């Protein structure tokens, strides 16, 4: 019984440590007007407005990994053909925060958009290491890779 409790305690500590290492754009103790503008636009599927909100946020805070991640995501969702810009901002998010799970997931999905399954799998592997007990980012990218491979196989 003691060993089970010890394992559960270690699990709780590991989850807390992982959560502390990973930035979150969905919850914050203080409001972020830039993220609020982004979220309002994203909820309306206004991806050009969302990317404009993040571009403005980046001009005042270029060292924010979440802003780079969401800017690249909104560019992709808006249907941009400038994938170099998308990759630049995802990579900048990961340069700032190499453990940014959202950036790994979305960068993997961006690689799928251009048909580079190998690079997408590299980011899935990174998420596997970051998400020791599993996480939605890992599951979502794994599903996206499977769906992409199923489409290509047809």
Key features?
mainly alpha, 8 helices
Describe this structure in words.
The chain has 154 residues and is mainly alpha-helical. Helices cover 76% and strands 0% of the residues. The chain has 8 helices and no strands. α3 (47-60) packs antiparallel against α4 (65-77), α4 (65-77) runs antiparallel to α5 (83-96) and α6 (101-113) runs antiparallel to α7 (117-130). The longest helix is centred in the first third of the chain and has 20 residues, at 2-21. The termini are far apart.
| Category by helix and strand content | mainly alpha
The share of residues in extended strands comes to under 5%
Give the helix tally: 8
Q: Catalogue the unreliable spans.
A: 5-28
The span between the termini is 51 Å
Oligomer: single chain
> What Rg, in angstroms, do the CA atoms define?
17 Å
The helix content, as a percent range, equals over 70%
What is the string of SSEs from the N terminus onward? HHHHHHHH
Shape: globular
Mind describing the biggest β-sheet?
none
Output mean pLDDT. Answer: 86
Number of beta strands: 0
């Amino acid at each position: 019984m003691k060993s089970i409790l010890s394992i559960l305690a270690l699990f709780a500590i590991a989850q807390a440590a992982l959560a502390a290492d990973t930035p979150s754009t969905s919850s914050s103790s203080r409001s972020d007007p830039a993220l609020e503008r982004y979220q309002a636009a994203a909820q309306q599927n206004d991806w050009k407005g969302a990317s404009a909100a993040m571009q403005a946020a980046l001009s005042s805070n270029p060292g924010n990994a979440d802003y780079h991640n969401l800017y690249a995501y909104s560019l992709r969702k808006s249907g941009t053909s400038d994938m170099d810009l998308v990759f630049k901002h995802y990579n900048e998010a990961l340069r700032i925060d190499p453990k940014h799970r959202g950036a790994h997931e979305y960068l993997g999905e961006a690689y799928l958009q251009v048909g580079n399954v190998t690079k997408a799998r590299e980011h899935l592997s990174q998420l596997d290491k970051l998400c020791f007990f599993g996480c939605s980012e890992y599951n979502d990218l794994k599903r996206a890779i499977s769906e992409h491979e199923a489409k290509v196989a047809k």
